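Feature request, filed as a ticket because there's no other form

It would be nice if the structure record came with a short human-readable summary line next to the tokens. Right now we just get the raw output. Example of a typical job, pasted below so the devs can see what we mean:
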Amino acid sequence: MRSGPLPQWGRAFALTRGQGVKHGPAMRILPIFAVSFLLPWVLPWVLSGGSADAAKPPPLGAEDSPAKPAAAPPQRFPAPPEGRVASTGSGFIVGEGRILTNNHVVEGCKRLAARNGAGQRAAATLVGTDTRRDLAVLSVPTGFGPPLTFRDSPAVRIGEQVVTYGFPLTGVLSSGPTLTTGSISALAGLRDNPLHFTISAPVQPGKSGGPLLDGQGHVVGVVVAKLNAMQIAKMTGGDIPQNVNFAIKGPEAAAFLSGRGTPVRHEASVGADLSPAVIGERVAASAVFMQCYK
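Raw output as currently delivered:
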């Protein structure tokens, strides 16, 4: 669900998609050296009569250790668009230079920007969408982040523990990623929608498009919506459902990507589950914060 004006999605059973939030001289400290520090360089020049070819002392410590190669500069990406951010959402890297998110996160956007786990921002270009699945794939510069791996087997079961990772309520909550945990509540979504899982992991506006991960950190779905609790409360005379949220199933997302020229990596989920903290550390570099400009 993206942050932005609330669209109407669903009728009697309304789904909440997200409420938007808007998103600004650094001091440079220059080193100061004592004059005496310069004498080893100045003195030979003076004694040689000002010759430019005068011998210079070796760098400090040169006799003790070999010179180290200079560190590679951080990778730079094309500047992202400027202007008013209308809404925000989440996404994740699924291939070299490819981001997966929800269609409703990017729908109606004139320009798109993405921020990776290293805090680098770049312009994103829409490659393809699927309104039925509510999915979209975007293009960003190569090297923007490592792709996540999708779960190949075994089949997802009711009761499995899952993790969501995304950027909800930016400007209200933390500007960084948020991790929540829960379980697979049902193998179908609203009104038996076969494209969705029902999950109990908390989901807030802005988390749409983020990955749903299993205990091995493999992608099993894409967060898409939450049940409109207030609408259901009106229909049921005041009963407010709790932790009823939805994610698009992993195979549906993989099929969509394959049809758009972005095959994903698959692995079996075997062995002991990882802790949510470890899963969060592993997915951080692949998670993407999306901004929509209108």
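Something like this underneath would help us a lot:
Residues 167 and 177 are 5 Å apart (CA to CA).
Residues 5-15, 18-65 have pLDDT under 50 and may be disordered.
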